[in-house]
Write a structure and sequence with these properties.
heterodimer; A: 249 residues; alpha+beta; Immunoglobulin-like; six-stranded mixed sheet; four-stranded antiparallel sheet; 5 helices; 32% helix; flat; B: 310 residues; mainly alpha; two-stranded antiparallel ribbon; 10 helices; 5 strands
């Protein structure tokens, strides 16, 4: 968190210097699309991130999805069968987390810096609701969270998919899979020189449902009893229609 | 072609869902069963959250029962009075079942309870069905042709069940029994239907024949009749309490299911009853063993998301 406060301060500072001298902005970036709409045919999408730096350096992109509360359960043996035994709750877990850079992050950053800015899955700070948990439990559940979300393609480890052009321009394709959570995303872009962040920028990204799917979802949640009744009416009509069609043949 | 399911919040292949509906519909047409007990586990296997699978399957069964009951209704094979008493029990049972479902979901034990219920009921019913139909087949082979096997159930059987109060006359079923019996059976099947995402026909039909002693020709029609109301109640409650009814998924399953059921019914007319029953028993036992096996083997991933807010 402190990393982000520093970064916001940095961004403000950058903003101030930008008004003073427009040429000396070390980093600018933007997305090809600030709104990803999940429609009925949604199968995932790519958003292009592009930008420029004022000289050589390494670029790291961190995409964070909206924070959620998560409960993880662990199975244990009860006689012959396996069943959920204990559970651990976590607060403000990013529902999506993706890091991209132009080369292996370990080559140009220290662990301290990565922890400070929460860059990389190992540096992700997890907040456990129960503060009495043992170090071992935290480690096990933390690893499980990352493993499960990586399997669901919601977390992905660092990779070198940012391409740099002539040490000035950079671009990256950010991939969002079909099961991407909806909400307000935060795309952080960091410029590294000599192992430290020299500039950073945040670009917002909204992922939301639109079209029929979104309306069905809103309807089901806001007018649940009416939705339930309508579901029954649709089913009865469909049943009658099916019977009528096949009685004739 | 992918389609986004708005309530399950996932993308699925539209043809996969259609063919799942088709195959289960084929089996249900072939064997004259609802098919919910096969569809719900299949939905789990493709990654639909259990709560959504159960709620949506209830919605689909409303449709398939409506289309199924009409033929029986026209032939006069629905005992309305019996159906109504079973429905009253079923509605109370399914209301209780949905509440239990929410409670177990919060405790993170819903999947275990669903699996265990399937293993127990599929195991008992598949086993009994296999035993009965094999016995019939073997007797048919042994006996000279033309002699039908005698029914085990004779008239004048008197048990403790006939001593219960609140007797009612069910003219179509030719029964004079306590209303508590169908009420109780309706209740138990209602609870199961709500938790397992099934119509409950596979429990209801044997219960009607062996426990109540109803004549076989009114059993299917009456069972379908009450399933409509019990699954409608489950649909309404799952939609209201848990918001887990996906209309898009239900409609897709229905389209495949209706077509499959018609083909299955035509194929079934050409096959022998006992052989069909053995086949169905083997499928039921197969699903049972698969679910039991999954409970017993060491899981490759011990952790899972779940509980409140997930």
């Amino acid at each position: 968190m402190s990393g982000r406060i520093i970064l916001i301060a940095l961004t403000v500072a950058v903003g101030l210097t930008r008004t003073a001298a427009a040429q000396s902005v070390p980093l600018v970036a933007d997305l090809s699309n600030h709104l990803v709409a999940i429609t009925t045919g949604f199968t995932g999408t790519d958003v292009l991130l592009f930008g420029a730096t004022d000289g050589p350096g390494d670029v790291v992109i961190v995409v964070r999805g909206p924070a959620t509360n998560v409960t993880l359960r662990r199975k244990d043996r009860f006689g012959p069968i396996w069943a959920n035994a204990d559970a651990v709750a976590m607060r403000d877990v990013p529902s999506f987390y993706n890091v991209a850079s132009n080369r292996d992050i370990a080559e140009f950053t220290s662990e301290r810096i990565r922890d400070l800015y929460e860059i990389g899955l190992e540096s992700l700070k997890l907040k456990f609701v129960d503060s009495q948990l043992s170090e071992k439990t935290r480690q096990d559940y933390g690893d499980a969270l990352i493993r499960l979300n990586t399997e669901r393609e919601l977390y992905s480890p660092e990779n070198g998919k940012v391409s740099l052009l002539a040490n000035r321009l950079f671009r990256a394709e950010l991939h969002f899979p079909a099961n991407v959570p909806t909400g307000a995303y935060e795309v952080g872009i960091y410029l590294f020189r000599n192992g430290d962040v020299v500039s950073g920028e945040f670009v917002p990204l909204i992922i939301s449902k639109t079209g029929v799917g979104a309306e069905v979802y809103d309807f089901a949640h806001n007018l649940a009893p009416v939705y339930g009744l309508l579901a029954i009416v649709i089913a009865v009509l469909a049943g009658l229609a099916a019977e009528a069609v096949f009685r004739r043949t | 072609m992918q389609i986004y399911l708005p309530i399950a919040e996932m993308s699925v292949n539209i043809f996969l869902i259609l063919s799942m509906g088709g195959v289960v519909g084929l089996l249900s047409g072939l064997f004259g069963v609802g098919g919910g007990f096969l569809m719900t586990p299949l939905l789990f296997f493709i990654g639909v959250p259990p709560a959504v699978a159960v709620g949506t399957e209830a919605n689909q069964i409303v449709a398939s029962s409506v289309s199924g009951v009409l033929a029986h209704w026209r032939r006069g094979n629905v005992d309305l009075r019996m159906g109504t008493v079973l429905t009253v029990g079923g509605v109370i049972g399914s209301t209780f079942g949905v509440a239990l479902f929410s409670l177990l979901r919060g405790l993170g034990q819903i999947e275990l309870v669903i699996s265990l219920s399937y293993v127990i009921f599929l195991g008992v019913i598949g086993g009994l069905m296999f035993y009965e139909s094999m016995k019939t087949i073997l007797r048919l082979w042994a006996a000279p042709a033309g002699r039908a096997p005698r029914s085990a159930r004779g008239p004048g059987r008197h048990t403790w069940m006939h001593g219960l109060p609140f007797k009612m006359r069910f003219r179509k079923s030719k029964l004079y029994i306590s209303a508590l019996l169908p009420l109780g059976i309706g209740f138990v099947v209602g609870v199961l239907a709500a938790i397992m995402g099934v119509g409950g026909g596979f429990v209801m039909v044997p219960a009607m024949i062996y426990l109540l002693g109803m004549p076989t020709q009114v059993v299917i029609g009456t069972s379908l009749f009450q399933i409509i109301f019990v699954t409608a109640n489950t649909t309404f409650l799952q939609a209201t309490v848990n918001q887990t009814v996906d209309v898009v998924l239900a409609l897709l399953l229905l389209v495949g299911g209706v077509i499959g059921a018609q083909i299955g019914a035509r194929m079934g007319a050409k096959l022998r009853g006992e052989q069909l029953r053995v086949l169905l028993a083997l499928i039921v036992l197969g699903v049972c063993f698969k679910l039991a096996f999954d409970l017993v083997i060491t899981p490759s991933e011990l952790f899972s998301f779940g509980g409140l807010g997930e």
